Amino acid sequence: MFRKLLDPFALVALAVRLVAGERSRQEQISDLRILIDQADEMVVYSEGFKREFVVYRSSKPKDFDELKSAITLKRDGGPFDCACMDGPEIALKNKKEIAAVWNHEGTAIGSSIWSGDWENSDPERWLRWFDTRGMTSARELFNDLQFEQKKSAADERRWLETMPSSLKSLWSKTLSQYNPPSNFPDLKPLNAALLKQYPDTNERIRALMAWFGSGAGPWSGFPGYEEIAQKILRQYPTAELIGAVDGRSLNDEEVEGAARILGSWTPIPDHTPIPPGLRQILLDHCLRSSDQDKVDRAKKAFAPDK
């Protein structure tokens, strides 16, 4: 077996870039630590945008020493710019402010030294510095964001698992074309694949409704990729959407998808009435939700006429 050899000049160039990147990172940390050593007071603000609230103030040498130890940076983690609200923010002072360091969602550290944020290599060590001093908001935000990231990943996995199998090979390309509001994927390949997998219109619609009913949960403020299933379903007249589910034994995902497409969206203006029995099934399903927006929309769409 032959192994392709790398150009020796390319190896040298790569090594130079890595050394330069490491030196830059270490220099940034070194410069900041020098300024921390020069500071005789730190003032910590709840956030850095307006600095309205002071949450901690200290001149204790231990606080400065442990702050230096808490700051770690990933080799290729920055600096980067983010319009997010950062905090807490630590102002380092010696008669006047000489530097600032701030928390960015627990996963990065910002500083006036490197003009932005830089991913940290040890979030736990960084957050522990705030915890020890009673500033728990940084940890709470970090935990909330970690929970949301895990939930988002689980939501997307469920979405992909429920997707009609004929669309899975097309999904990556479809997503690459999705950039609302200007660009939206071409639905023709998706429609062709669905037609091949589900020649029967009713089966096709129910499969799409099960997919659409397996999203993150909200009918408003949902992940953008869910709009693709919505767009496909919107191609069908209301009468066909209703006919595919009325009088059928439906699973929870199909009921959710039917309620979502018929209740959270104003259909093509053919004003096809939803049969009373189906309306009651969709309403009962939605009333079990803790999402008040969904409940309100369902009441408006499916409540019996007075």
Question: Overview of this structure, please?
Answer:
By secondary structure, the protein is α+β, with helices and mostly antiparallel strands. The chain has two domains: 9-135, Dna Ligase, domain 1; 159-302. It is built from twelve helices and six strands. The protein has a six-stranded antiparallel beta sheet with strand order 2-1-3-4-5-6, with helices on one face. A hairpin with a 4-residue loop joins strand 5 (108-111) and strand 6. The N and C termini lie far apart (80 Å). Mean pLDDT is 88; it is low at 1-21.
Summarize the structure.
The chain is α+β, with helices and mostly antiparallel strands and 306 residues long.
Protein structure class:
alpha+beta
Q: What is the number of strand segments?
A: 6
The arrangement of helices and strands along the chain is HEEHEEEEHHHHHHHHHH
- Widest sheet: strand order? 2-1-3-4-5-6
Q: Mean of residue pLDDT? A: 88
Estimated radius of gyration: 27 Å
Q: How far is it from the N-terminal to the C-terminal residue, by CA?
A: 80 Å
Extract low-pLDDT stretches. 1-21
The number of domains: 2
Q: Assess the beta-strand content as a share of residues.
A: 5-15%
Major sheet description: 6 strands, antiparallel
Number of helices: 12
- Approximate helicity band: 40-55%
**Silhouette:** elongated
